[in-house]
Amino acid sequence: MRGEANSDLDVDLVMGLARATGDLAGGGTVVVGRDTRRSGPMLVAALQAGFQSVGVDTLDAGVIPVGGVSALVTELGADLGVMVSASHNPARDNGIKFLDADGFKLDDEREADIEARLSRGAPWRSPTGAGVGAGRALPDATDRYLAAIRAHASHSLEGLHLALDCANGAAHRAAPELFGSLGADVASFFADPDGMNINDGCGATSPERLASEPGARGRIGLCFDGDADRLIAVDEDGRVINGDVIMAILALHLKSRGELVGDKLVTTVMSNLGFRRSMRAAGIELVETQVGDRYVLAAMREHAAVLGGEQSGHVIQLDRGTTGDGLLTALRLLEVVVRERCRLADLRRDAMTEFPQVLVNLAVRSRDLDRATGVKEAIAAAEAELGDDGRVLVRASGTEPVVRVMVEATRAETADSIAHRLAGAVRRELG
Predict the structure, then answer these.
(1) How far apart are CA 423 and CA 79, in angstroms?
(2) In terms of DSSP bridges, do strands 390-396 and 402-409 run parallel, antiparallel, or are they unpaired?
(3) Euclidean distance between CA atoms 59 and 53, whole angstroms
(4) Residue 257: CB partners within 8 Å, gap ≥ 6?
(5) Considering all CA atoms of the chain, what is the largest pairwise distance in Å, rounded to the nearest integer?
(6) Rounded to an integer, what distance in angstroms lies between the CA atom of residue 221 and that of residue 163?
(7) Residue 411's pLDDT is what?
(8) How does strand 357-363 pair with strand 315-317?
(9) Does pLDDT of 12 surpass 80?
(10) Helices (H), 282-320
(11) What are the b/e assignments for 393-409, b being 16+ CB within 10 Å?
(12) Residues 17 and 9 sit within 8 Å (Cβ to Cβ)
């Protein structure tokens, strides 16, 4: 659930959501964390009031990455986790992410049950006296989370020089403390949140900003988003390394060590053709899903894969965690640098060759691509023109009236020309 805070996502709705979820749970304990948005404390208070009013205890983890909420749920034996964050969205927005007792995002069936209970509304369970849920703060929440991550660290990071873009978000304290404690020389950027500057021209959606900072030059850059579930890296030469390249580096390293279970990797339809070719050449089987980390996770569990993710920087490592966690991803990436005794720029170059990719988002009246005959014909013509040297993907957004056109080719000019040709076909039929 995500929207403009105090408008789309207001206190009444959030309190009702907590009541519905707690009413279905019938009690227990929930861990609540948030990012640095100004609206966060307001919505956390509404969540806590809603849960406590139906007999659910709350543990307030304060500002913490979403991976911390996931880790605390399992460590403390809680029944649920909730992260109040709109992830990479601007500061005016906020959102609610639910995690189950194992630290995984709730599945579709359980979310549907919550939605149905919310729609029915009152009467809610209304315990009194000792039956009312209790609230307790977790002042050591970040320390517990960092201890859990450090337990996975196999190497010291001494000798590495890092530039951390914390997006003025949930990682602003956790990331510098983690990598500094593991021996790295750390320079922090965008780590001074004021409630309204989260993701403001910085973070995983704007990694070029870190690459342009004089104090980051020559360092390995690590860019997180608002709730720190994403990682986009910047190599020592200032080149951006997206989720595809990060997964390629990790997958090749894990396979070389016999740690890539089943030699499988889960990715989405948006992954670059160069990534696909590199993984096939290495004998790594790709399992493809639609866009969305929940679909990646479902496929990983179905196929017993330990690594999966998205081009956007969501990477899930089921041998180390249960949800996307940018700090965990960064730790493993840096461990590869240490083990291989080379620069991140060298790992990037050797992992894959990225095909130029052009993405055009089009506002439309209708998202019904099945009936858009002209669009289908344009796609067929583009695919015939590209052959094996490119790829076309035209898909409707699942959440807004938008059709997305993606084209990859060996030359940027070719990709751009075909993408805008397809965009014209979409506008004529659907726009």
Answers:
(1) 47
(2) antiparallel
(3) 15
(4) none
(5) 72
(6) 5
(7) 93
(8) unpaired
(9) yes
(10) 293-303
(11) bbbbeeeeeebbbbbbb
(12) no
d(CA 263, CA 253) in angstroms, rounded, equals: 11
Phi, psi angles (nearest 5°) of residue 60: -90, 110
Strands (E), 35-111: 57-63, 80-84, 93-99
Peptide bond into 207 cis (omega under 30): no
- Crossing angle, helix 326-340 and helix 243-256, to 10 degrees? 50
**Sheet containing 231-234, strands listed edge to edge, beginning at the edge strand earlier in sequence:** 185-189, 161-165, 220-224, 231-234, 240-241
Question: 39-54 pLDDT, tens per residue?
Answer: 999 999 999 999 999 9
Tens digit of each residue's pLDDT (9 = 90 or more) over 151-169: 999 999 999 999 999 999 9
Residue 9: name the closest of 95, 82, 73 by CA.
95
**Are the beta carbons of 24 and 30 closer than 8 angstroms?**
no
Provide mean pLDDT across the span 348-369: 93
Cα 124 versus chain centre, distance: 33
Element holding 232 (H helix, E strand) = strand 231-234
pTM score, whole prediction: 0.92
Which residues are registered as beta bridge partners of 288? 267
Active site residues: 87
Residue with tokens 């890539």: 260
State how far the Cα of 425 lies from the Cα of 333, in Å rounded to an integer. Answer: 41
d(CA 121, CA 374): 46
* Measured distance CA(423)–CA(106) in Å, rounded: 36
